[in-house]
From TrEMBL:
Species of the source: Notoacmeibacter marinus
Domain 2Fe-2S ferredoxin-type: 1-76
Residues making up the signal peptide according to the UniProt record: none
InterPro entries from the UniProt entry: 2Fe-2S-bd, 2Fe-2S-bd_dom_sf, 2Fe-2S_ferredoxin-like_sf, 2Fe-2S_ferredoxin-type, 2Fe2S_fd_BS, Beta-grasp_dom_sf, Diverse_Oxidoreductases
Pfam families per the UniProt record, alphabetical: Fer2 (PF00111), Fer2_2 (PF01799)
Protein name: (2Fe-2S)-binding protein
Keyword Protein biosynthesis: no
GO molecular function annotations of the record: 2 iron, 2 sulfur cluster binding; metal ion binding; oxidoreductase activity
Database matches in SUPFAM superfamilies: 2Fe-2S ferredoxin-like (SSF54292), CO dehydrogenase ISP C-domain like (SSF47741)
Length: 167
């Protein structure tokens, strides 16, 4: 039996301790926001926070997390109010297919908790390893800048002028 706190609530997992956290969250708790992408910690779709740090849940054995505090995409909002990063994602109209967005948002939250006013270069560096097949990287950067209070223009004002920049 592995005991954790998930999104502020106690949780117990009576599973093989080698089960990846991703599957414990999805299959045992029914938290479907965290996505399976690659299974080898390379794409970032499965990113969650473990004790405040971003972690790839697809390769993290649930048994290694006894008494840890896990935050998933479902745990960011406060009541009906989205987390500021989630609101910035909405304002900047970031998602296209949306599959990678939970992991992107979790990585952005971790970045802003560590560095509340990152430069575009720091954003690019921190978000490396979170892949978006739709190529919404410019919108992701704009949303992170907005969430940090550095973007002051109207939401998605220049969305049609963005070009794909993967770096």
């Amino acid at each position: 039996m592995v005991k954790l706190t998930v999104n502020g609530q106690p949780a117990q997992f009576d599973v093989d301790p080698e089960m990846p956290l991703l599957w414990a969250l999805r299959d045992v708790l029914g938290l479907m926001g965290t996505k399976f992408g690659c299974g080898i910690a390379q794409c970032g779709a499965c990113t969650v926070m473990v004790d405040g740090m971003p972690r790839r849940s697809c390769v993290t054995p649930v048994g290694s997390l006894e008494d840890a505090s896990i935050t998933t995409i479902e745990g960011l909002a406060v009541g009906d109010r989205p987390h500021p990063v989630q609101q910035a994602w909405i304002d900047e109209q970031v998602p296209q297919c949306g599959y990678c967005q939970a992991g992107q948002i979790m990585s952005a939250v971790a970045l802003l908790e560590e560095n509340p006013e990152p430069s575009e270069e720091e954003i690019a560096r921190a978000m490396t390893g979170n892949y978006c097949r739709c190529g919404t990287y410019p919108a992701i950067r704009a949303a992170i800048l907005r969430a940090s209070g550095q973007e002051t223009g109207p939401p998605a004002a220049n969305a049609s002028e963005r070009t794909i920049d993967r770096g």
